[in-house]
């Protein structure tokens, strides 16, 4: 019985030791970016969403949150969150191509006399100009938005792909 407890303890701690040596962790490509502000605030335009944004620069990439309003009849509120990983840096500051994932409101449509925001998820390819003063990002994304139902539960709009183009400009805090 004592031997089985010893074996169980060795196997449990073996898993803990290997957790620190995970070969599948992404490379921290922004680790040397000490002169870049960690927190940045700015504004931008994503498809029809005019927004303020908050960006967090960390060693693995840039996480962001966007909050704003759609530029249509009722100015429906919308928000997105996402993360961009530096795929290929061009060598100047930390400029380069970043691959990203995002989720949130992808568009706002008028169905049955009411404005409705469509939730969805997607991926994007962005070019980021990143230095000690600012972050400027231009991205092209493709996502899938959720279906829309009317008040009776009937499907008004099916799940469909959505493309978005975005530009944001942020300055360090």
Q: Would you kindly provide a written description of the structure presented here, covering whatever features stand out?
A:
This protein is mostly beta strands. The protein has one domain (27-172): Porin (Beta Barrel), CATH 2.40.160.20. Helices cover 10% and strands 60% of the residues. The chain is built from one helix and ten strands; from the N terminus they run H-E-E-E-E-E-E-E-E-E-E. The chain has one helix spanning 2-19, and strands at 39-46, 49-58, 61-70, 77-89, 96-111, 114-130, 134-145, 148-149, 155-157, 160-172. The strands form two sheets. It has an eight-stranded antiparallel barrel. A two-stranded antiparallel sheet has the order 8-9. 28% of the residues are buried. The mean pLDDT is 84.
SSE blueprint:
Elements: H1 2-19, E1 39-46, E2 49-58, E3 61-70, E4 77-89, E5 96-111, E6 114-130, E7 134-145, E8 148-149, E9 155-157, E10 160-172
Antiparallel strand pairs: 1-2, 1-10, 2-3, 3-4, 4-5, 5-6, 6-7, 7-10, 8-9
Keywords: Signal
Signal peptide: 1-19
Protein name: Outer membrane protein beta-barrel domain-containing protein
**Main sheet specs:** 8 strands, antiparallel, barrel
Just name the CATH architecture: Beta Barrel
Number of helices: 1
Give the number of DSSP strands: 10
Q: Outline, from the CA principal axes?
A: flat
Unreliably modeled segments: none
Radius of gyration over all CA atoms, rounded? 21 Å
Classify the helix fraction into a percent range: 10-25%
Beta-strand content bin: over 45%
CATH topology: Porin
Q: What distance lies between the first and last C-alpha atoms, to the nearest angstrom?
A: 60 Å
Mean pLDDT equals 84
Please state the structural category: mainly beta
Give, in order, the helices and strands.
HEEEEEEEEEE
């Amino acid at each position: 019985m004592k031997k089985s407890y010893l074996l169980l303890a060795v196997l449990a701690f073996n898993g803990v030791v290997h957790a620190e040596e995970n070969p599948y962790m992404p490379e921290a490509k922004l680790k040397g970016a000490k002169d870049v502000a960690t927190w940045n605030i700015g504004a931008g335009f994503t498809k029809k969403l005019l927004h303020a944004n908050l960006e967090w620069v960390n060693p693995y990439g840039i996480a962001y949150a966007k909050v704003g309003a759609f530029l249509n009849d009722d100015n429906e509120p919308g928000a997105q969150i996402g993360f961009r990983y530096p795929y290929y840096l061009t060598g100047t500051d930390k400029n380069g191509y970043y691959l990203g994932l995002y989720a949130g409101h992808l568009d706002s449509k008028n169905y049955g006399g009411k404005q409705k925001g469509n939730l969805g998820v997607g991926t994007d390819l962005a070019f980021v100009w990143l230095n000690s003063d600012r972050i400027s990002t231009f991205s092209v994304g493709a996502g899938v938005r959720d279906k829309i139902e009317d008040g009776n539960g009937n499907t008004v709009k099916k799940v469909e792909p959505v493309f978005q183009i975005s530009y944001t400009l942020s300055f360090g805090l």
